């Protein structure tokens, strides 16, 4: 199993205390599925950090999207969702040894309107660093 999969799984498990979580890019949201969380890892940079044992330092972008039903207090709901996500991520430590470091990079909020779906989303971008063996990231 690739370390990205282990990291997504560990973080999704921790975030399940906030709302139902999907740890992969999924189909469009359904109105009855709110609130919920989606997370995905679209980008990763790698650099070699040792010569002899050929270790790699990886820096991966992790996006955590928190969705809530739109209402008069949408911004407050989005802030509350972002707060719970940040608290869980901060309290997760190294997520059972899957990460070396995880830090919040930015938060963006938006309103979604598509047909009958009226919702808001807060997207938290985290930088996740971890190390692997060269050519054998699952070892």
Summing up helix and strand content along with how strands pair, one would put the structural category as alpha+beta
Average pLDDT taken over every residue = 90
Tell me, briefly, the overall form.
Answer: elongated
H-E string? HEEEHEE
Number of helices: 2
Provide keyphrases for this structure.
alpha+beta; 139 residues; five-stranded mixed beta sheet; 2 helices; 22% helix
Q: Could you walk me through the main structural features you see in this protein, from its secondary elements to its overall organization?
A:
InterPro entries: GpU-like_sf. It is a single chain. This protein is of the alpha+beta class and 139 residues long. The protein contains two helices and five strands. A five-stranded mixed beta sheet has the order 1-2-3-5-4, with helices on one face.
